[in-house]
Specification:
This is Glycosyl transferase. The protein has about 375 residues and is mostly helical. It contains twelve helices and eight strands. The strands form four sheets. The protein has a two-stranded antiparallel ribbon. Strands 3-4 form a two-stranded antiparallel sheet. Strands 5-6 form a two-stranded antiparallel ribbon.
């Protein structure tokens, strides 16, 4: 499938002059559900992934992606508090919802800013993401949960890698800042793995829950920066274990269901979430970049195909004609609602598959 075959109509449908609306009823945005910084950060990341793919686009999709990107950048800039953290949830009238602090939101926003900073080539937008990143970085060291730390580790190592290739760091951000934080995050992930790993359970936690591929992915990103043997060993071992847990006997991707998760003695099969498929693809793409093993490229392909019907029910969740995706897979079929998280998970997985294909061709 060529890059032009995937449309961004649904992403645009979900986007108003404030940002990306979180939920839909079918394909129609549910304004009463408001907005989340999580989704707007994901949307920034998706836009820069696709802008890289569509460098030679003549269809006008790049112009549309830049228009959407500006909405999401403005949202993130607005959602960032004075202390560098982010308000995650907003009502439709733009007033903040009551909420607890979210490490995931902070980490995801730091990653989005880093990904945009290293990808964008215009000073105006890069100035915005540099400011977001600079203000968020000091408070990120306070993150307590693994997924937020994984985002932070990957963001710091991405910046450091590009720094080694000649990219100037954002004003006020030093190489020492990034190195110190990356070391802290990496050691926390490795310590969690050592604490929970057994001969039969090769994971960072006593359960496999949500967004799982994020953890091995961050370690692969870190390894690409500094090449530490233990980091690579844990990244590969945990990803192989996760892939086995997320694969059916017929070879299709089978995400761990959020109706009970997965422990050493049981596994929930439903409700399967697109975001978990995307995070597995993310980790597998990075594993392929590090190891060059075709097994991981095949995992990315299988993840992509899950959206198009190569799943437990043999039914598509994604519609490339408008770029939308159903919110999950249940025993009785797909959830018909097509919200922001699922749609972005589809668009990101498709972008990952296509980028990997281009990398293979260029080798």
């Amino acid at each position: 499938m060529s890059p032009a075959a995937v449309k961004f109509d649904h992403l645009e449908r979900l986007t108003d002059d404030t940002g990306l609306i979180e939920h839909c009823l079918g394909r129609i945005p549910r304004r009463r559900e408001g907005y989340s910084t999580d989704d707007n950060a994901r949307a920034i990341w998706a836009c820069v992934e696709w802008l890289d793919l569509l460098e030679d686009d003549e269809s006008g999709e790049r112009r549309r992606l830049y228009r959407l990107l500006d909405r999401y950048l403005a949202f993130l800039l607005w959602a960032q508090r004075e202390d560098g953290t982010f308000q995650n949830n907003f009502h439709f009238d733009r007033t903040p919802e009551a909420e607890a602090h979210s490490d995931d939101c902070l980490g995801r926003s730091i990653w989005a800013a880093a990904a945009a900073y290293v990808s964008l080539d215009d000073d105006a937008r890069r100035r915005v993401v540099a400011e977001i990143f600079r203000r968020a970085l000091p408070v990120s060291g306070e993150m307590q949960f693994l997924r937020g730390q994984a985002w932070g580790l990957a963001a710091c190592c991405l910046m450091l890698s590009k720094r080694n290739n000649g990219l100037a760091l954002p004003f006020g951000v030093t190489e020492a800042d990034l190195t110190n934080l990356a070391d802290v995050f990496e050691q926390r992930l490795l310590a969690a793995y050592r604490a929970h790993r057994t001969d039969h359970w090769r994971w960072f936690e006593p359960q496999i829950t949500y967004a799982n591929g994020l953890l091995p992915w961050a370690l692969f990103v870190a390894y690409r920066y500094h090449g530490r043997d233990e980091t690579l060993k844990v990244a590969k071992e945990s990803l192989d274990f996760l892939t086995a847990k997320m694969s059916g006997s017929n070879g299709v991707i089978r995400p761990v269901g959020n109706r009970g998760w997965c422990s050493s003695d049981r596994r929930a099969d439903w409700d399967q979430q697109p975001v978990d498929v995307m995070k597995l693809a993310l980790a597998a793409r990075e594993a392929y970049r590090v190891l060059g093993d075709e097994t991981y490229r095949e995992v990315v392909r299988r993840c992509r195909n899950w959206f198009y019907g190569d799943n437990d029910l043999g039914t598509p969740l994604a519609d490339p004609s408008d770029g939308s995706c159903c919110d999950g897979l249940n025993p009785d079929g797909p959830n018909p609602n097509r919200g922001a998280e699922s749609t972005l998970s589809y668009l990101l997985t498709e972008a990952m598959a296509q980028s990997l294909q281009l990398e293979v061709v260029s080798r």
